[in-house]
Design goal:
Layout lengths: L1 H28 L33 E11 L2 E12 L2 E10 L3 H18 L17 H18 L1
Antiparallel strand pairs: 1-2, 2-3
């Protein structure tokens, strides 16, 4: 019986050491807090690149911008004018100028012009990517080409 009494303290000590080791292991996995600092605005230089910025916070000048995009349809090269109004990098308005070369193109450009606002107004210009609007997939190509030019204009 004495052996059992002596075994219990040894088991308790071993269990206690195991628990302490486990807790110490958890503490070691917790990352130390890191300090974050804001960049010094006086040392930040604007990009001279024509590529679109990836951060819309202050990257685009507010205003209205108009560009023309082209795309290929079965009837040849088509164009579409895009006017975007930006405020803090967010699209607040869009207008589409159509230049159809035939009744089929007129239909699709008209459908696109009527549906694009619902797709992009209120979104960050950096988040806009349209491939098909109101059944028109080809007009989207011209729109995206014009959008890239607008992004370059607004970031310069």
């Amino acid at each position: 019986m004495r052996t059992i009494i002596q075994a219990r303290p040894a088991i308790a000590v071993a269990a206690g050491l195991t628990l302490v080791g486990a807790l110490a292991g958890c503490a070691a996995e917790t990352p130390a807090p890191t300090a974050t600092t804001e960049p010094d605005a006086s040392t930040t230089e604007p990009s001279a690149s024509a590529e679109a910025p990836t951060d819309s916070t202050g990257a685009y000048a507010d205003g209205s911008y108009t560009e023309t995009g082209q795309y290929q349809s079965p009837n040849g090269t088509e164009t579409v004018d895009v006017t975007l109004t930006l405020a803090d990098g967010v699209v607040t308005a869009v207008e589409i100028g159509t230049h159809p070369s035939n009744p089929n193109t007129e239909h699709y450009q008209g459908e696109f012009a009527g549906g694009i606002a619902a797709e992009i107004v209120g979104k960050s210009i950096d988040d806009i990517s349209v491939s098909k609007v109101a059944g028109s997939s080809l007009t989207s190509g011209g729109f995206m080409q014009a959008l890239e030019a607008i992004m370059a204009d607004a970031s310069s």
